[in-house]
Amino acid sequence: QEQLVESGGGLAPPGGSLRLSCAASGFPFNSYAMSWVRQAPGKGLEWVAGIYTDGSETFYAPSVKGRFTISRDNANKTLYLQMNNLKPEDTALYSCGRVVGSFMDYDLRGLGTQVTVSS
Question: Most buried residue, 11, 46, 58, 79, by most Cβ within 10 Å?
Answer without folding.
Answer: 79
